[in-house]
Amino acid sequence: MKQSAAALPQEIPGDVIHALVRAVVAQVKRRQQAAEQDILRVPVGVSARHVHLSPEHVEALFGPGYSLTPIRELQPGQYAARECVTVVGPRGVLQNVRVLGPPRGKTQVEISRTDSYVLGIDPPVRDSGDLAGTPGAVLVGPRGAVNLKEGVILAWRHIHMPADMAERWGFKDRDLVRVRTEGLRRVVFDRVLVRVSPAYRLEIHIDTDEANAAGLKNGDHVQVIIHDQ
């Protein structure tokens, strides 16, 4: 029986190749867009050592009737003030420590672990306002001094998140998340506290030790990667 010759492959027309390429490129773009929608990128704010003062202590340090002078907004309704104080510990001092406003119910000093070695104290990692059982320090201003019995903490790294964004991403106030940094010294920060409020602007706050370890600066971004259980 006579056998037929094997069919030779035919050349694919150029317009078909171009159509296939366009389809593949479009599919890749759709996948990238879908992946990006699943990534929450948060701008970084590096918090250097600072002090929150009660109204009573503002007057004790700067004089009767004194009002803080805002110089830069940090979050809506919160600001860095022009005023600075000196923080004195058993071993050393920290000078030119920025005061943040507005005044609060209790005075609070937020420092880094490196700062704590300078002062000679051992503050715990705490959320803002959780001051029970924390060490104290002496604050010195231009018009007086205050001897704090407690109030010095290492601030718990945290994300300020607007309420509408939290709802969209499924977060609630005081959730704990993990975040991944970018760059050559990338790290994963575990147990990052989420604070939710309609007044907040999205930003993660870390201290100078954490920022230096990860090679981060103000305006860089991190990615929220998972809820902690």
From TrEMBL:
<comment type="pathway">
    <text>Polyol metabolism; 1,2-propanediol degradation.</text>
</comment>
<keyword id="KW-0012">Acyltransferase</keyword>
<dbReference type="GO" id="GO:0046872">
    <property type="term" value="F:metal ion binding"/>
</dbReference>
<comment type="similarity">
    <text>Belongs to the PduL family.</text>
</comment>
<keyword id="KW-0808">Transferase</keyword>
<dbReference type="GO" id="GO:0051144">
    <property type="term" value="P:1,2-propanediol catabolic process"/>
</dbReference>
<keyword id="KW-0479">Metal-binding</keyword>
<keyword id="KW-0862">Zinc</keyword>
<comment type="function">
    <text>Involved in 1,2-propanediol (1,2-PD) degradation by catalyzing the conversion of propanoyl-CoA to propanoyl-phosphate.</text>
</comment>
<dbReference type="GO" id="GO:0016747">
    <property type="term" value="F:acyltransferase activity, transferring groups other than amino-acyl groups"/>
</dbReference>
<dbReference type="InterPro" id="IPR008300">
    <property type="entry name" value="PTAC"/>
</dbReference>
<protein>
    <recommendedName>
        <fullName>Phosphate propanoyltransferase</fullName>
        <ecNumber>2.3.1.222</ecNumber>
    </recommendedName>
</protein>
<dbReference type="Pfam" id="PF06130">
    <property type="entry name" value="PTAC"/>
</dbReference>
